[in-house]
Amino acid sequence: MTSPAPDPRPEPRSVGVLGGTGPQGLGLARRLAASGLPVVLGSRDPARAAAAAEPLAAAGLPVTGANNAGAAAADVVIVAVPYEGHRDLLASLAPELAGKVVIDCVNPLGFDKQGAYALDVEAGSAALEAQEVLPGSVVVGAFHHMSAVLLSDETVTSIDTDVMVVGEDRSATDLVQALAGRIPGMRGVYSGRLRNARQVEALTANLISVNRRYKAHAGVRVTDI
Ligand SMILES: NC(=O)c1ccc[n+]([C@@H]2O[C@H](COP(=O)([O-])OP(=O)(O)OC[C@H]3O[C@@H](n4cnc5c(N)ncnc54)[C@H](OP(=O)(O)O)[C@@H]3O)[C@@H](O)[C@H]2O)c1
Question: Count of CB atoms within 10 A of residue 92's CB?
Fold first, then answer.
């Protein structure tokens, strides 16, 4: 008798969200919690995180609030803060995040009268910057194109989109693809090494232009796979 093949995509037991009080972190938390994963919302102010978690917990979802260090104690941690606060927050949490998969969905964007545009980041991208300040963590880029409006809309039961996943470590990108796959309609697609995070982050500026022109919440679909 042959023993069953090991699961190639081990799943985390909990997810923490840095900046989990904002629309993106809260939306991802709602969807992942709805898939059965305990989620800890992080904030600079734990009372704000507790208040953000309260309605989700009241709806029966396994969501709690903490400070960002508390959220960083989870198995896998999503970074959902504005680019302005990205480097400093991650540097301050480097010890807590060591040895973990850190999922970065941060889009360094500027806005002017012509719309959104990608900012130049010294490290090359927000994800590479995260890896620079978190040498003991495995950084994976994902969820950059995921509309917070759709994530938070309870009437949207399936979010039909692909999630471009970039990273260096196969088991970590597999894990993040599996995490995306827990959300109905969503599919995680491996999209290259971390050095290619820049284009993924920058593409968000194009999607914002699409959204403005077509009054939509556009995502991406990768074809023929
Ligand atoms: N919104 C979207 O549709 C969307 C889609 C894809 C990706 N993203 C990316 O996801 C990230 C979060 O987006 P968001 O719209 O949720 O942003 P947000 O509301 O502006 O910020 C999220 C949270 O980050 C915390 N924060 C704000 N400034 C901070 C700072 N300087 N240092 C540390 N924490 C700070 C705040 O929480 P506390 O005050 O409670 O600490 C805030 O609630 C962004 O990088 C964005 O590019 C957003």
Answer: 14
Domain regions of the chain by residue span: 15-214
Residue nearest to atom 32 of ligand 1 (CA): 85
pLDDT in tens, 133-153: 999 999 999 999 999 999 999
Average of per-residue pLDDT across 193-209? 98
Q: How many whole angstroms from 7 Cα to the centroid of ligand 1? A: 33
82 within ligand 1 shell (Cβ under 6 A): yes
User: What is the number of other CB atoms lying within 10 angstroms of the CB of residue 22?
Assistant: 17
Q: What does R_g of the chain's alpha carbons equal in angstroms?
A: 17
CB neighbours of 143 closer than 8 A, spacing ≥ 6? 24, 28, 78, 103, 105, 163, 180
Q: What integer pLDDT is reported at residue 6 of this predicted model?
A: 46
Q: What distances in angstroms separate CA 197 from CA 14, 23, 88, 139, 216, one per listed residue?
A: 25, 22, 20, 11, 24
Average pLDDT, the chain: 95
pTM of the shown model: 0.96
What sign for the dihedral angle of Cα 72, 26, 39, 28?
negative
Counting from 1 in the atom list of ligand 1, the atom nearest the Cα of 25 is 16
Q: Provide the CATH number for the domain formed by 15-214 in this structure.
A: 3.40.50.720
Whether ligand 1 lies within 6 angstroms of the CB of 43 is answered as yes
Q: What is the reported pLDDT for 120?
A: 97
The 10s digit of each residue's pLDDT in 41-98 is: 999 999 999 999 999 999 999 999 999 999 999 999 999 999 999 999 999 999 999 9
Ligand 1 pocket, residue 48 CB under 6 Å:
yes
